[in-house]
Amino acid sequence: MHIVGENIRKKREEKGLSQEALAGALNVTRQTVSSWETGRTEPDLDTLHRIAQLLEVTVEELIYSQRLKEPTIIQQVVERKEVKNSIEAGSVIGTALAVVISYTHWGSIGWAILHGILNWGYVIYYAIRYM
Q1: Which end of the chain is less packed: N or C, by CB atoms within 10 Å?
Q2: Which tens digits make up the pLDDT trace of 12-50?
């Protein structure tokens, strides 16, 4: 699989670096860089990360030949302002419903407060997990 090596060579040449200069910056031999670029071997993940930093590109660009432009579905949803507003409104309405239903069902404000707190716990979990 020569794609990674070809991308390293292309990005190195775009930066105007020689194999020797890249090798020196990575503390490897020029032959090692040549082996990566010809596809005989591939750098490990730590080295690939260091190469990406030196060449000022992402690891994805070295692996896939392009920067991943498409954000994940979760990022797309969270970035939409109306979704953020609906999450905030939904959490407030959900808490209010939990309190009212708990109070009417058990007739105790203690249970109502407990269910309100549990609902906010779920909201916080959801926010941490998906945002």
Answers
A1: N
A2: 999 999 999 999 999 999 999 999 999 899 998 889 889
Runs of H (alpha helix) within 3-80 = 3-14, 19-26, 30-38, 45-55, 59-64, 73-79
Rounded to an integer, what distance in angstroms lies between the CA atom of residue 24 and that of residue 111? Answer: 67
Domain residue limits at 113: 73-130
How many Cβ atoms are within 10 Å of 27's Cβ, its own excluded?
A: 9
Q: Give 69-78 contacts, CB < 8 A, sequence gap 24+.
A: 74/130, 74/131, 78/130, 78/131
Domain C-terminal end among 17, 47, 64: 64
Please report, for the domain that includes residue 29, its CATH number: 1.10.260.40
User: Model confidence over 93-112: pLDDT tens digits?
Assistant: 777 777 787 778 778 778 77
